[in-house]
Amino acid sequence: MKSTQYSEKTLEHFRNPRNVGTLEGPNVAVGRVGNPVCGDMMDIYIKVTDDDRIEDIKFQTFGCGSAVATSSMITELVVGMQLDEALKVSRGDVADALDGLPPIKMHCSNLAADALHEAIKNWRAGVKPEDATTTPVEKSCHPRPAAVVEVEIANLDDYEGKGVFKELKAPSELADQRVVVLDSGDRAAQAAIDLTDHTGRVVLMTTGKEPSVSSAMRSALRLSDVKVLAEAQPLELRGEGELERILVHDLNEDEEYELTADAFVVLK
Amino acid sequence: MAATDTFADIVYGDYQSSKPVDPRVVEAMLPYFGRTFGNAASLHGVGDAATAALEDARARVARFIGADPAEIVFTSGATEANNLALIGYAQRNRHKGDHIVITEAEHISILNIAKYLEKSGFRVTRLPIDLYGRVSAKKLRARITDDTILVSVGWASNEIGTIQPIAEIAELLAGTGIVLHSDAVAAEGLVPIDVSQVPIGLMSLSSNDIYGPRGLGALYVRKGVAVAPVLLGGGQERGIRSGTEDLAAIAGMAAAADIMAAEMPADVARIKAIRDRLVERVLAEIPDSHLNGHPIERLPNNAHFRFEAVEGEAMVLSLRDADVAASTGSACSSKTLEPSHTLISCGLLHEEAHGSLEFTFGRFSKDDDVDRIMAVLPGVIARLRELSPLYEKEPA
User: Fold this and answer.
1) Interface contact B311-A67, CB threshold 8 A
2) A201-205 and A227-229 as β-strands: parallel, antiparallel, unpaired?
3) Terminus of chain A with fewer CB atoms < 10 Å: N or C?
4) pLDDT of the residue at A5
């Protein structure tokens, strides 16, 4: 079955999603599941009455047709329900309510029930919405245990002059290259911004949730074409004679992946 | 029954995945379902007529790419041509070495054939691509060994449209004994291909990609390059590809090649103007949009975009509701749930590759297609960003 062979009901919810948005106030909790890396991420907001009833519910979703439709459907299913009752609503119930989902979409995009359960869990644990949307996402699309985090980057010295730059004398040398700049404060961020005059691809990689820069620099970064890659720990440099790929530990997902790069700037 | 009628109501922007058969090609095929139905192997008059038609078609397809008729082997499509080129050449020439080089920008048919060859004991190196999807002769040179027998580089990417420096690579390999194969499916009919000018050993073609019928392709096999058959049987196509030739389809491909040879310059100029206008308007009118692939060295019909904080399948579905057909490299639309390998190799992060949207134009694209796309696309992106927790509005 093609991934796009959705039921009419699924398509209808995708076209006209119910309860899109966010909620605020003292009686609100949020559940966030998924990850943009996997192609789906959703936030479900619930407003709970004193007698444990879901008085209002909203969602925001990044993802494919079924990700949007399942989010929309679950908000309709559980509004007005007691929390205990809502916890019993499963992924299968959501899929059934949509007249089924293509098999390939069942586990990957049907995260709405998980997001709701997460919201209820956060409500009961007293987790505030602003904390719930920044805490690490638990669901992973490709769970793979990552290696122990070491600040030491393997092969860094081997690639010096072959893609590794410990100082940046002439940014124009890196024209049209995929450049990764390791976060070390405002100087590195400024170097990254300067490089965008010469190449369309500049990544500022930081192990933190945000680069360790001043607030002025943060605004400058946001306005620039620099792609900030947060919670990423470079582990090892790879390539045939010159730098071609950086092995990265995704600290949020706890998994490893290779990022294609021609230049790695690690300012002293 | 003009092919253009098919698109009266919709904007078809997915020529890379399938093209309509030109009505003139259909016309040229019809006699082979009737009077000229023979088997080219038969000795009687009906068979002779078939042989004459087959060889006439072969000569016309050969002329389209600057080849000798004896260098054309008809197959059931480009996938089979790729199988015959890589598996057939590797097996026939194993005594010379066991190393094959492909690129990270190849079509999935080449990637999967390479995996099969690895299981069969060959070593495969995957050549990296740059930011724009191009390979470099320099990086290729560093990977060639004494055991290398075959290098396969697609003429252009069907996905991001980047054109490879084939002539430069062919030049590098000339005289080394290493054969160059190119899957030219994405490029045929869009850029000039002349094997009398480029020293290439093997090249895969598809009939549908020049507006001929589906289910037919061809492998160009330069004189002196030996391949073992992959399909065994009655020894048709000089023993390289068994199976009675599909004469109607072959006549169709020949007609398609003739039409393309005559009309390509005007066709391409018109298609490129449509594509250029779309790229210009999207980048100017839709915030946080990017063009993937090479800015200049790209197929004239290809526009491949990336939109921040939206997912590709959701875009394609929304456009479908507005009668616009497009495609995406997002994982959510693929069978494997992996995003496009080409975009990842270009250096995009997974979450960026999910936001890709591809338009490809062709012979029956209309001048107002861009206006019709732009009447809906900005709204589609805006709506999905409204839904998305990832989209940060531009700071005031």
Assistant:
1) yes
2) parallel
3) C
4) 84
